[in-house]
Structures are given as structure tokens and as C-alpha cells.
Design a protein that fits this description.
It is built from 16 helices and 25 strands. The protein is an alpha+beta fold. Among the domains are: about 5-70 and about 135-180 and about 415-475, no CATH class; about 340-410, Dna Ligase, domain 1 (2-Layer Sandwich). Strands 4, 5, 21, 22, 23 and 24 form a 6-stranded antiparallel beta sheet that branches. It has a 4-stranded parallel beta sheet with strand order 9-7-13-14.
Length: about 475
Amino acid sequence: MPLLNPKTDFLLSNTINELLSRLPRDEFRQMVDEIHEACLREGITYIHQRDNTLRVIPLMPCPRIVNPIQRSYFHYVCLQIIDALKRLCAVYINDPQVRKLLPLSEDEEQWVMDAWGQNVPRYHTVISRLDANTEFSALDWRENFQFFEANSVGIGGLHYSSLAEKIILEVVSPRLKRLEPELYLEPNDDMRDLLLDELRLHARSIGRRQCNIAFLDDPKNISGITEYPRLAEYFNEHGHAAVVADPREIRFHNDELYYRDMVVDVFYRDMDIKQCIALEKSEGIDLTPIRKAFQRNQVISSLAGDFDHKSCWELFTDDQYCHHFTAAQWRIFNRHILWTRLIRETTTADETGRMIDLIPYVQNHRPYLVIKPNREYGGIGVTIGPDVTQSEWEGVLKEAVEHPWTYVVQRYSAVRCQSLPMLQPDGSVVPEDFYITCGFVVTAKDIGLVGRSSRKSVVNVAQEGGMTAVLMILDQQRF
């Protein structure tokens, strides 16, 4: 049965759902088994934090579809936000008010001052994943494109997403094309290449002749993503020496940084400054070589990555800080950044610009707000106002008030929900509702997309969520 309007309907998620639902039950089961086996083979796995077991990250058989116009817009918007994030370290150093909104411990602040002091490098690199609420198939996709937060240190998905797209194209796309021959899908930019290009560019910019890469990761942190060995393997295959390095084994000798016997030109880190400090204190080791790497601007993300607090959104949504950013950036913030405030006793502006007492406002507007720990990740501690009772909300708010500067409140944005065909234990295929979000990783010329899904409204792999491949429809099928 042909599609009614291939130039528009191809962009609608329910079109793909309908095609997958037409598959015979046995073929759908075989397809799901092939996806699972491919995920295990390609390393789309994580180590669960509860029992430290290796698990395959669920990959939804139904891809999300983005078109080139949307990609271009997302790319432009994300570049503006990344540039603003790169400014935060310099803004922190020069503005005492900003230092209150991006709270660091004394030890963390000492690391920043020892490494950069007042001399923030003119060129430094931040690789961030910007997590957003998106609905590619909606007519108002641009208006409802809103960012939850940024993650700028050790971001997940760089290996997973590229392989997820490859698996869906190899396993699912031929079946879709058999049912609808005019459907042409292609992958987005490979995020492994995106990362490698940024590392090479950074190495050249700081005068390195080569680009030997060390993924800085504490091997004692067992749980979490398992991407770095696979990324190192990929980089080695593409002509660059790459290793996963224990920070305890980095040394500085003859004006060079070494991991064992390998000179390291660039570090890509999965550790923030807070973790480095904790490692020094708990084990009594000296991480001076890591400090030296920051001083020499050999670390990605740079020190600016440690300012990816959720409270940095307050800088982007409070007019008193607009002078730190460009007019183009401020327009983007007004349109796409969710109103956010660090919880403490204060008077501030709400979304309309009206001045409010923050704590009573948060207490009385539960259905429209979310409370999050400022510096946690993995969906830990997120309280969604519409999902809890007033007494539960006030209990969380009480905790936040008793520990000021450690929680943020953010405007609630209902996470998009999509019905996806899923294989049931009895072999039937039944639509199930999933919450879906997307993470964006951009460089000057490329954009990568990390699609995520979950039965819970807090969408995160660490919260037992899964992945959705995001594929692009070809140019001739734009609407």
C-alpha cells in the first residue's frame, strides 16, 4: 500500500511504526534478535551500577527521522550554546556574581587558578552533549525544541550512536525499503570521526606534531559506559596511537606527558576536577601531571567543561547576565533554554520578567517545575513536579533549602512520548509508549545525534533507558 504523500509522511514517526507493524510476527522477532546480537557484538553495552553486570543497551527497532533543514537549524543553535559554554570559565574568573551561580569547592577553584589563573587560553576545546526535548515530526518542532542541560565531561554516546545507526540501517532499513521502496534513509555524521577530528584540530592548534590520544578514565569506576576501549580501537585503526589511561600512571618527563612509554599529545577525559581531587585525597597520590596537562591546554574538554552545572542555565535565562554573551546567543537562549534557577533564598525574575521570591514561588508552582541536583548526572535525584504529591514536593524543596546552592529548579517541559512497536513475551507485536529525548554533539562542520528512550519520564541509560537511532531522510524528500 503506497504512502499517501511520500514527501511529507516520510517525516512522520507513525509512518515508520506502521511499516514495522506490517512485518510478520516471526520476522519481527528475528529482526529484534539480530539487533540485540549486533549491539552485543559492536559493544553497545554498559556495566550496571547495582550489580556490576555487563548489559546490552536496548536499541529500539523504530528509528527517529530528521530532515536536512532540521539538522542545519539544530547545528546552528547548538554551536551558539557551545560557544557560550566555552566562555564560562573566563566569566567565572572575572565576575564574582557568576562564581556564586557556578559553585566550586576551594580545592576545585585552586585547580582552576593553578592551571589558568587569569589567562584563559584563546583557543580551547569543549565537547559537550546538549540534551534536549525534541519532536522531529511535529509541525512546531522549532518552537518546542528545548534544552534540559549540558554534559561536557566524559559524555556518553560517541561510540554507541554511530553504531546504533549502522545497525538499524543494516537490519531494519532493508525491511522498511521492501515495504516502501521510495524510503531512502542515511546516517548522520559519525561521532567517532567527529571526536577524532576535534582532537586532531586541537593538537595542531597547540603546536603538537602528532596526535597521540589518551582517554583519561579511572579503572576503579567499574559501572557505566564501556565506550572508551572501542573508541581507542577505532582511533588506532585510523592511524592514531590511542589508549585508555589510568590517571595514576600519567607522568611528566623531559617536557612531555607520558602514559607508560607513550608520549601523549591530547587527553580526552572522563573525569572532572572534583573526581581528581577525591582521588588524590582518598589514595594519597599526586596528580601534578594531570594539572600540567590542563596548564598546557592538552585536555579535552578544557577546564571550561567543569562549569557544565545545571545552574549555568540561570546565566542563560537571567537578563542581568546577558552582557557576557552575544545578541545572537541571547536570542537562542530566550527561545530554546528552559528557565532555571539555583535554589536559595533570593528574589529573581520569573519567565515573564516579573520579580518573585524564589522559594515561595517554587513551593506554589509544583505542576510547572522540576527540581534537580545541580551537579549530579545519570538522572539521579530528579523530581518532576507533576509526577509527585505536594507533600513530596515540599520535602524535596526543604532538602534543597537546607542545602542552598546545590539544587536547581527548572521549568517543566513534558518529555515527548511516542508509541513504538515492541515484541512481547508471547511473540506478539504491541505498541508501547516511550519517552524520547535527543542529545546533540556538534563541531564547526558536523553534528551527531544521540537518541534516547525510556518507559520512565527521566530518560537516561543509567535509569534503565535505551537508545533510538536517529536517521536522516535524503534531500529530495524534504518538505
